[in-house]
Amino acid sequence: MDIFAVNTKPYSDQSFGTSGLRRKTEVFAQENYLENIVQSIFNSLEGFEGQTLVIGGDGRYRNDKAIQTIIKMAVANQFGHIIVGQNGLLSTPAASHIIEATKAFGGILLTASHNPGGKNGDFGIKYNIATGAPAPESLTNRFVENMHKIDHYWMIHAPDIDLSKVREQILGSTIIEIIDPVADYSRYMQQIFDFEAIRQLFQSGFKMTFDAMNAVTGPYAQYIFEELLGAPKGSVIRGTPLPDFGGMHPEPNLNYAKELVDLAYGKNAPDLCAASDGDGDRYMILGKSFFVNPADSLAVLAENMESIPFYKGRFYGVARSMPTGGAVDLVCQKLKKNCYQTPTGWKFFGSLLENQKISLCGEESFGAGSFHVMEKDGLWAILFWLNILAITRKTPEQLVKNIWTRYGRIYNLTVNYNTDSAVKAKHLMDSLSSKLVSVPNQTINEMTVSKACFFDYTDPVSKTLFTNQGILINFGPSDQAMIRLSGTVSSGATIKVYLHHKDQRTNLSSDTALEPLFNALQNLMNIPKYLGKNVQITKT
Ligand code: VG1
Ligand code: CO
Q: Which of 384, 332, 388, 381 is nearest to 358 (CA)?
C-alpha cells in the first residue's frame, strides 16, 4: 500500500467545538479543507493504530465524497478497522451506539445537524470518543491547535470504495466493514422499549405520521415503525435521505415542518405526528391539533420514566438546559428526583449521565436523551412517547394537560434574531449586560426586573465552573427570559431569546400568555438600534 504525505497549509478560520465544525458547503470544497481537519484530529489522538474508527453521516451533499477521503486517510494513518454505514449513512445516535458497542477508538460524523444542506447549504464534521460522546473541549482544543499548524497529511492511492453493499473488504492492512446502518440501532431500541405493547397500539388502529424531512432517519423509521411495529405503510413520509433534504430546512419545529404541522391540525389528523432533524438527534411530537412543547414533553417523559422496564430502578434524576421551560422541575419535585439546570449544549449532560446523576435530559431545541447513548436521540424520544401512549392509551394532549392541571403551566417561546453581522450581535449582548448591571431594578412596560445576571454553571461532578452561559432576567417569580448567542450558525450570528411565563390558567394561547414579557424584552433589547433593519426573526 502506497502511503504518501501531501503538503498543505492551515486555514485560519478553522475552529472546532464539542458539536464539531460547521461551515458553508463551499467552504468545505476548498482544497485540503477537510483533509486538514481530519489529519489534525488524528494528530491529536494517541494509540489508535490498529483500532476501529466508525464513519458515517447524515447523507447531505458532499457526504459521499468526504467519506471516501476520510476512509483513505484513516487507512494511511493506520487504523486497523473502519466501520462505515451503507451508503455512508449513520444517524448521530446510531453512530454513537455503534462506537460504544464495538469498542471503537472513536468516530467521525459528517453532519451539520439541523442546518440546511446542498450546494448552498451547510456541511459539518464532528468527532466522538470511545464512549460515543462528542469529543470534550480538552480534546477539541487540541484539534484546533493542530489545525493551525498543520503542514502535511497522510493519504493512499486507491480507487473509491463501493459503499452501496453491506460487506467487508481489505484495503492495505485495514478491514473496511460496511454495515447496515439500521440493524444495531433497531436491535437496541427493542431492548429499551416494549415493542409488543406498541405493536398492539398500532393493531388497535392507532395512526401515526413520521416526517423524516428527507434526512437520515428515513430508513430507520421505515424499518422500526412500519416493519417492526406494524404501522401502516406510508406512515413514514419524506423517508428517503436526499443530499439537499429536498430543499427543506431539516429542523423539526413549527416553522420548518410546516406540512406535518398542517396535517396534525387538519381534519384527518393522525393520533400522533412526529419528525426528526438532519442527523436524527432531535424530535418533535404533535397530537391531534396539539403541539407538544419540548419542555412539556420532557416532563411527560420524566413522569413515565419508571414505567419503561429499561429505566425501572435506574431513574436517578433529570437535567434540562436553562432555556428549557421548567415543567420537568415540577414533576421532579413531586417524584423527589434531582433536577439540574445546565447551560445550552449536550456536553453539559454528558458528565451527569456518565456519573448516574441523571437518567433523562432535554433541551428546548427539541432534543432529549438518556444514558442509553451519549448523544440526544430523536427516534428514541418518539419511541418513548409511543411506549407511553401504548401503556396509558391516553392522547398526547391528555398527557400534557394532566401535567398542566396538576402543576400549573409554563408557557415557552424562543425568539431567534438572525443577523449577518456577528460584530453587531456581540455589541448588542455587551451593551445589554452593562445596562442590566448599571440599572438593576428597572421597570419596562410595567414589568420590573427582579434579578439580572449571567448564568454561571458549576458541573456537579468535575466542579468545573462555566461562566457567562447567557443573560438571565427574572421579572418576579412567574416571568423569566434568557438571552444568548447561538453557537451553531455557520455565518453571521443568531441571538436567541427564551421566554417563560408560569400561569395557573392553562388555556391561554402562548402568544397571549407571553406578550407582556415579549414586549418588555423587545423594549430592553432595542433590536433595530443594534442590528439595523436587516434582521430575520423566527419564533419556535
Ligand atoms: C443549538 C441548540 C442547542 C443544541 C445545539 C446542537 O445550539 O440551541 O440546544 O444543543 O444546537 O444541536 P445553539 O448554540 O445554536 O443555540 V444539534 O441537533 O445541531 O446537534
Ligand atoms: Co441534530
A: 332
Q: The pTM is what?
A: 0.95
User: Which phi and psi angles does 378 have, rounded to 5°?
Assistant: -65, -55
CA dihedral 419, 425, 431, 437 (to 10 degrees): 110
Alpha-carbon distance 177 to 148, whole Å? 32
CA of 451 to the centre of ligand 2 (A): 33
DSSP 285-324: EEETTEEE-HHHHHHHHHHTGGGSGGGTT---EEEEETTS
Of 391, 410, 370, 376, whose CA–CA distance to 500 is shortest? 410
Average pLDDT, the chain: 94
- Of 346, 364, 365, which is best to mutate to test ligand 1, by the most ligand atoms within 8 angstroms of its C-beta? 365
Cell of 482: 434568557
CA 266 to chain centre: 28
Say which amino acid occupies 125. Answer: I
DSSP characters over 112-179: -TTS--STTSEEEEEEEETTSSBPPHHHHHHHHHHHTT--EEEEE--PPP--SS-EEEEETTEEEEEE
* 114 alpha carbon – ligand 2 mean position (Å): 5
For residue 392, how far is the Cα from the chain centroid? 28
- Banded model confidence at residue 17, pLDDT cuts 50, 70, 90: confident
**Cβ neighbours of residue 200 under 8 Å, at least 6 residues apart?**
390
Reported residue count of the chain is: 540
* pLDDT, tens digit, 9 for 90 and up, residues 449-491: 888 899 999 999 999 999 999 999 999 999 999 999 998 787 7
Confidence of residue 286 (pLDDT cuts 50, 70, 90): very high
Q: What pLDDT shows up at residue 61?
A: 96
> Is the minimum distance from the CB of 344 to ligand 1 under 6 angstroms?
yes
Hey, which of 344, 415, 483 would you mutate to test ligand 1's pocket, going by the most ligand atoms within 8 Å of its Cβ?
344
- Identify the DSSP state of 224: I
* Cβ–Cβ < 8 Å for 54, 375: no
Question: What spacing in Å lies between the alpha carbon of 131 and ligand 2's midpoint?
Answer: 19
**Which residue type sits at 83?**
I
Residue nearest to atom 13 of ligand 1 (CA): 486
Q: What pLDDT was estimated at residue 439?
A: 67
Query: Which of 45-54, 412-421, 463-472 is most confident?
Result: 45-54
Catalytically annotated residues? 113
